[in-house]
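Q: Joint fold for the lines below.
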Amino acid sequence: MTPLAGYLLVAALVFAIGLAGALTRRNAILVLIGIELMLNAANLNLIAFWRYGPHPEALTGVMFAVFSIAVAAAEAAVGLGLVISIYRHARTTDLDKMNRMKG
Amino acid sequence: MTIVFWILAALTVAGGLAAVTLRNTVHCALAVTAAFAGLALLFLQLDAQFAGFAQILVYIGAVAILVVFAILLTRGSETAEHGVFSRTWLAGLCIAAAVFAVLGWAVLRSVNAIPQQAAAPVVSVKDIGNALMSRYVLPLEIVALLLTAALVGAVMVAMHEKGEAK
Amino acid sequence: MQEALQFTPQVVASSIAKILWLIPAVPMVAAGVIALMKQPRRKAAAGLAIGSLAFSLLVALAAFGHVLAGWMGGHAVRETVNFTWLQFGSSNVDLGWVLDPLSAVMMVMVTFVGLLIFIYSTGYMAHDENFTRFFCFLSLFAGAMLGVVIANSLLLLFMCWELVGLTSYLLIGFWYQKPSAAAAAKKAFLTTRVGDIFFLLGIVWLFAQTGTLLFYNKGAGSMEPLALGGLLAAPAALGLSAATAIALLIFAGAAGKSGQLPLHVWLPDAMEGPTPVSALIHAATMVAAGVYLVARVYPLMQAGMPMGGTTTALTVVTWVGASTAVFAALIAVAQNDIKRILAYSTVSQLGYMMAGLGLGGVAVGMFHLITHAFFKALLFMGAGSVIHGCHEEQDIRHMGGLWKKMPVTFATYAAGMMALAGLIPFAGFWSKDAILESAQGWKSSQGPFFLLIFGALLTAFYMTRQVSYVFFGAYRGHGDAHESPRVMTTPLWILALFAATLGLLGTPAWPWFRSFLTDRPASFELAGFSEPGILALMLTSTGVVVIGLIFGWWLYGNKSPQAKEPDVLAKAMPPVWRALRDRLYVDEIYGATVIAFYAWFARVADWLDRRVWGGLVAGVTGLFGLWARFNRFLDTYWVDGAFDKGCEELSAGGGLVARIQSGRVQTYLRLLALAVVVLAAILIWSSRA
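A: Joint structure:
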């Protein structure tokens, strides 16, 4: 197994774990945590490809990962704000109870 | 595949696992912080120093704190009455497993096609700065706009309405 | 003595022959018009009927004149007008009419006597509320009877024959509210129907055998030598030829219509109809139709006759006629209803006519028919006048002494009675004598002669009895008897005149009638009286009649017994009297045999209908009901059930699918992830190569 494959597999594993958490936990905040894990796994992928891929001097991978971090931060902020707002309204963060988004 | 890699990989994965399986939400937040740290060290090992420190600063320093604040504000530390996992958790687990299987399969099948670059690239902050200001200036500005909008938006969303009863 | 008929070959029809169809058509059209009139329009109805029949009389006289002129000129006339009615394949059914001496005399008689009776009816039925309907039926009858007379086709004759039967039914049952009248009408219709069935069989057989139903058709008709030869050669059953068999079948029809034994039972009951009906239909014309039919098909009856001998058909006709003559005369002796006596007298005289046809030929029988028509119509109308004058009384034991109160009626009735009894020089004497003469000369047997002589004795006897009861003695009725109005007595005078003088057309000295019918020249020769046997026969028959008259007068004249007293003869021979009074039990025999069988059969048929066929129908209905219920069950449980189940499953499926839209974010996320997995798998798989 090449180093690249190792990093990619780790990233895939973390991604799957994050996805599992996002899909199975009741608490909305934990879903957001799962999403952050997924984003992080994607960042790891990017960096791994930058390191072991062609033309690392172009800095593409690093830039991409940095911007991803920035956007993820913004998204986390807005997402958690939404959770708080919903909690204020529904008095709970249990996602199983929030089923108004149908129809 | 050095031993460092394995340790860091184990840390990250363990942290991630703990984050999604622990009962107490605060413990989950702490576990995810550990996972962020592991990832940051992995970035450092990959000679992406700027990305590693940015990860530490932003994720551990801001996002994790934000998550804790949110947990505290929504009484997430109280134990849930129906259990922490959804009623249909198995379906989610299977889907996640399927995703991992597909990704793993893709990786293992195709990794041989990529040429190996053994030499570590030397990247200085000066280079990153130059790149930000020349080639990536547009994305930089847009991210700035995005952050501003997110800031305003988050405040708008989370703020109390005038006179709204709590 | 039967003479061969000699006629000149058929000539082109004269203009009279061409319009001959008007004679029956005009009264029938008049009947149709009267049928549409309302009841109160009496004068119009009577006027139309009388006018139409008067028109027919004029045309008939013109036709008669034409035939007479032809005969006097030495060539007898037989003109036919035929046309095809139906065509099937190669065979035709033709209709047509014929103008020859036979139809000419019959036409004149029917229209003349009919006209007199129509005029008489305006007086007789004046108080009846159904006056218009009466004249409609009378007119229809006149048209139908004239159709029978002029028909040249056996089919046309049969059609008019049936129509005559229908109008007879309608007129006998004219007062249909009376149950006895309705029953009598039904009886008349059914009894003549029995005869008509045989008649129809004869017609069909004749058509099958000869291919035509026309009597005369320029050599191709069924009464012409070619067809007759074929009929004689064709065999039927029991050693008879087809000619004999068909002749007997046709005679059966005539026997029904003319009241021969044993189909005579309807005629006395037919007296339920009004008296003009009895006079016209059941004395002069309809009952004579049977005799006329036999005269028309006489060539068939006569076919194959050996010289000086006779055929089987004619033998049967003779014996039936002679027996009927005596049988009916016996019954007439013991009756007490004035019309019933005359009815049985009619049956008896019809027997005479048939015997005359069988023994002496067309001329002999027809002569008696013509004379009988006049004097029987006279007698019936006289009886009607008596009934009218005695306030609807019909029992002779409640009459009497009317010669003083109704002199005109008495005088005319006496003339009719003398004619019927056959006293010289009245008409009946000459016609009856001609029959007796033929009977005497019949080679096969002298039986008919003696029967007919005995019948003449009885006729004189019962007529004297009737006249004594009605006109002589003391009046035993209720109310005051009065003479009838002139509209009723004038026809009586006219008929009395004919009854007295018509016979002179057929005396041995001047046999005009016979010559006319058989195309011989006729001249007046007193030497006719001196032919062997004629004078002796005349004396014998006069003697017999006188004996009857004296015997009758001795027993009944001027005695006027009361109704509750038994009759003189009843005291003398009670069982015989009882049998005669009860009409020799013929009706009872019918009732016990035919009618009882029929009633039983009707019950069987009813049982079959209700139980068997009804049961079948009910069974089929039940099966259908079961099937329908089964279908409904299927429909409800299977079809509906399946359909409902399908819809339920569809709903459930829809419900299941709707669960995807749970409203929960994680569900949507899972679906997204699943889609990505599938997409990635596809992409990777497709890039294997």
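Q: Anything notable?
A: Residues 207 and 213 of chain C are 6 Å apart (CA to CA). Residues 586-658 of chain C form the longest helix (73 residues).
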